[in-house]
Every structure is written in structure tokens, then in C-alpha cells.
Design goal:
Blueprint (H helix, E strand, L loop, with lengths): L6 H11 L8 H5 L11 E5 L4 H10 L5 E6 L7 H6 L4 E3 L2 H7 L5 E4 L6 H9 L4 E4 L7 H14 L3 E3 L8 H10 L6 E7 L25 H5 L25 H10 L1 H6 L7 E6 L20 E7 L9 E6 L21 E6 L2 E5 L7 E4 L5 E2 L8 H15 L4 H4 L5 H21 L2 E3 L5 E3 L5 E4 L4 E2 L23
Parallel strand pairs: 1-2, 1-4, 2-3, 4-5, 5-6, 7-10
Antiparallel strand pairs: 7-11, 8-9, 8-17, 9-10, 11-12, 12-13, 13-14, 15-16, 17-18
Length: 477
């Protein structure tokens, strides 16, 4: 499909050509602060409950834009958005919304992870700008596809990792570029996630418990067909690989963003992991590799961006496991919640999630904190930057200045999901000669980013992409 014509450009060009159209100044139409309809984006929401509600409200931006359509498989989850955006058309199926709501300029996508890629694909082939919640996609192959498609369709894109627009990130980059802590070879990242059930098998299907208004078939989308399963919708799907991406997918896009940006990291070359309890003789039948582990440690190797320099080793831990705090900062700092430590030869930089509250620890000097509390609602800021870039157009200065357009968010998401390939490979089991199950995927994986393949363990490549339910395929490029 061709990129749709921009409605605002059409009106403005018509005025210049003398065709009877003209733009009345906004102060004449509606007073101070009024946004003329010709200056508004027409928005749709794919996922309008939970995070989707705040995403479309941020894009609406107090009336700076107009919400024309809302979509959610469960209208009860979307009731707040329906009430706020009175008059917006409501759909359960995003495909019908995209086909029938012809006036849309852009959409927010805040569905479960396994739906992101198809929803974004369908929107972009219609020429719509997209804001997609993190993680951008469910698989590496999907991330690569959306990155290419966004360029081809010339649409404005943003992933919803709002920490990318934090004041803390450019400040940390300023410290790194100024050699404030010397050479960085090691990065520690940790999170208190999961805060949902994890480390157990998915609940059993029970069709009799399905909420009356929930369209379960649409919720499944690209996932395999099965009866309604309680305990997945609306939130706990995150702990099961068929729908979610675990702690890494949830918080990795917020936390890894800092070192990935400031250290100019690219495709990793290797990844390995260990996970909680899977080698215990106390293995219980309640837990299978279909579910994310209760805790994990993932180590990702990055080559140096400077020839002749050593690379960077990034260590991720979840489930509440935190790194040891170096003696030189232990009187000032403790690793609680979620955080990042950049370990340099001449000092250390720490920050919390979203790149907030960074502290520079130079050797032999007092700590230098940087206050990010003045930046206000970071989620709203990140979204508003996207809507303004949509109005400016593809490859405008505003679009190029976005911190998580798909040109960045695509490769970055691939790196985050690389950690999950290590976890899932680590949990592979097979029957040995004695008839017992054994784990056989515990090894360091070597990654060829250009060709999108694990080079030393073929069984791991099954997790680079996935199988789609008939009629819900993503036509990967």
C-alpha cells in the first residue's frame, strides 16, 4: 500500500491553490490553547484498557489531537477510555478498525506482546504512524521486519520505553563521552520483576469462566488456538512464552536502554544464562519450560565499537537478585528495586529505572547526583514527542530526534530478546538413554546479528521466530 496522504497537508495545499479551503487561525475558532482540527492527529487505540488507556490519553494530549476509534477485545477493560473519548467508534477486532476507520493518521498499540508485530504491520501498510508499547515485538524476526517496514512505508514510529526521553540518559552520555569514569567493560542491570506469577506452568483451560464480553479468539490472535484459560487476561500472560517475554521484555527495554545508548552497543556476539531451580532434583510437574523462570541471570557480550578496544559484558538479573555493591560506593548507594551500574576504570555511574536519578562516582571524589525530578510526566513527554513528530512528518527534524523510533528500537529490541533466547534454550529438555529428561541447552550462544542466527546451537534458532495461527501470520520480510 502507498503511504496515505496527510490530511493537514491537503488542506494547506488547497488553501494555496485557491480551491476554497482555508485555515482559520486557532485563536479565532477556540480561544487560547485551542487546537484547530486541521492541526490535530486523528488517533486510534489498539488496546484501550490498562496501559492502552494511558497511551491513548497521552496521545490525545488534552485535546491537541482527536481520538476517533478505540479497540479492545474486552470492552470492560476499556470503559474509562470509552467514557473519556465519547463519540469514538469502538471495535473489538483491530483489523476491522483499520479497515473501516478511514480517517486515522496514527495508532497506539498496547496489546499483549504476542500481538504487537501484526497490529503494527497492519497499521503501517496502511500508512499509519505507530506508537508501540515495549517490547516492540515478541520475536527477533518480528523486530527486524518492523524496522524495515517503517522505513519502506515512511511512517513515524516510537516504542513506548519512556525512559528513552529521560533527562538522565543524555546526562549519562555526557559523562561517558567526557571520559568521566574511564573505560567501561562491565555493566550490571537488575529488576524486581516479575511481579506476576512466574516459574510455573500455564493454568488449565476452563471455558465456563470466560468473562461474558471478552472475545477470547481475538485475544489469542497469532497464538495457538485453545479454550479460554483463566489467569492470563488481562495481565498474567507476561509470565508465559507464548504470549509474553517475561521480566526482560517488561523491564529490559527500560533498563538496558541506558547502556545500549550511551555506550553505542550494537548486535551482541554471545549470550548465556542461568535460571532458578531448573536443575533441582525437586523438580515439580507444576513447572514446565512453557513458562518463564522465577529468576534468571543473563550475560550478554558486545564487541567494542572502537577497533582494538575490549568489548562490554552486560549482566542482567531478575527476580529480585541484585549485584554486589563495590566498596567505593557502598556508603552512598544500595541496589534496591531496579537499577543500572556502569563500571568504569576510573569510576562508576548508577541510575534507577527509566534512566532517572543518575549519580556519577569518580574515584576519590564526592558523588555527583543529577536531579531528574523536574522532568514531569515522562510517559506523557515520550508520547507527545511522537505525536509532534507525526505532524512534522517522516524524516523531519522532530522524527529524527525521537529516542525510540524503530531504527533504534528494532535493533535494541532484538538485543533484549536475545537474552530470552538464552533462557529458553537453557530450559530445553530431551529424553536420555535412561528414559529420563535432561537439560541439554546449557551453553553460551554465539550470535550472528547480520544473518539473525545462532551459529553454535541449531535448536536455539527456533526461538528467533515463531509459528503463527492460520489467518494471523506476520508476513516477515
Amino acid at each position: 500500500m502507498k503511504v496515505k496522504n496527510n490530511r493537514r497537508d491537503f488542506i494547506k495545499k488547497s488553501a494555496l491553490l485557491g480551491t476554497g479551503f482555508y485555515i482559520v487561525p486557532r485563536h479565532v475558532l477556540g480561544g487560547s490553547g485551542f487546537t484547530a482540527p486541521s492541526d490535530q492527529l486523528v488517533l486510534g487505540a489498539i488496546g484501550a484498557g490498562g496501559k492502552g488507556n494511558s497511551d491513548i490519553n497521552n496521545a490525545y494530549n488534552k485535546g491537541a489531537n482527536r481520538v476517533a476509534a478505540l479497540c479492545d477485545v474486552d470492552p470492560n477493560m476499556a470503559k474509562d477510555a470509552i467514557k473519556r473519548h465519547e463519540g469514538a467508534a469502538f471495535f473489538k477486532d483491530f483489523r476491522k478498525m483499520l479497515d473501516q476507520q478511514k480517517d486515522l493518521d496514527a495508532v497506539t498499540i498496547s496489546a499483549p506482546d504476542h500481538v504487537h508485530a501484526l497490529a503494527a504491520h497492519e497499521a503501517m501498510i496502511r500508512g499509519l504512524h505507530v506508537y508501540v508499547q515495549k517490547p516492540l515485538t515478541h520475536t527477533i524476526a518480528e523486530a527486524r521486519h518492523l524496522t524495515k517496514l517503517a522505513r519502506k512505508q515512511k511512517v513515524v514510529t516510537q516504542m513506548g520505553n519512556q525512559g528513552g526521553s529521560s533527562m538522565g540518559v543524555p546526562k549519562i552520555k555526557e559523562w561517558i563521552d567526557g571520559n568521566a569514569i574511564g573505560e567501561v567493560k562491565k555493566v550490571f542491570i537488575w529488576t524486581n520483576r516479575p511481579v506476576w506469577p512466574q516459574g510455573k506452568s500455564a493454568p488449565a483451560p476452563n471455558a465456563s469462566q470466560k468473562p461474558q464480553d471478552l472475545d477470547w479468539d481475538l485475544w489469542l490472535g497469532p497464538a495457538s488456538e485453545k479454550p479460554y484459560t483463566p489467569g492470563l487476561h488481562p495481565f498474567d500472560w507476561r509470565g508465559y512464552w507464548e504470549y509474553g517475554t517475561g521480566a526482560l521484555g517488561d523491564m529490559g527495554c527500560h533498563l538496558l536502554d541506558v547502556p545500549y545508548k550511551v555506550l553505542n552497543l550494537g548486535y551482541p556476539t554471545g549470550v548465556q544464562c542461568s535460571v532458578a531451580n531448573i536443575y533441582s532434583r525437586m523438580w515439580t510437574p507444576d513447572y514446565t519450560p512453557d513458562g518463564c523462570p522465577v529468576a534468571s541471570k543473563v550475560t550478554i557480550d558486545f564487541p567494542s565499537s572502537v577497533p582494538g578496544k575490549p568489548g562490554v559484558e552486560l549482566e542482567w538479573t531478575d527476580g529480585g537478585i541484585t549485584p554486589a555493591i563495590p566498596d567505593e560506593i557502598s556508603d552512598y548507594y544500595s541496589a534496591t528495586g531496579s537499577g543500572v551500574m556502569l563500571m568504569g576504570s576510573e569510576g562508576i555511574i548508577t541510575c534507577t529505572d527509566y534512566g532517572n536519578d543518575p549519580i556519577l562516582f569518580r574515584k576519590g571524589q564526592e558523588p555527583e547526583p543529577f536531579d531528574t525530578s523536574v522532568q514531569g510526566n515522562l510517559d506523557a513527554k515520550h508520547n507527545a514527542l511522537w505525536t509532534e513528530a507525526c505532524k512534522a512528518g517522516f524524516n523531519s527534524d522532530k522524527h529524527l530526534a525521537l529516542t525510540s523510533s524503530f531504527d533504534y528500537a528494532g535493533p535494541f529490541t532484538e538485543t533484549v530478546l536475545m537474552g530470552n533466547i538464552a533462557i529458553r534454550s537453557h530450559m530445553l529438555r530431551r529424553e536420555n538413554e535412561d528414559g529420563n529428561l535432561e537439560f541439554y541447552g546449557r551453553k553460551k550462544l554465539r550470535w550472528d546479528g547480520d544473518n539473525m542466527r545462532i551459529t553454535n546451537f541449531e535448536d536455539a534458532n527456533q526461538f528467533v521466530s515463531k509459528t503463527y495461527r492460520n489467518g494471523w501470520e506476520v508476513p516477515l520480510s
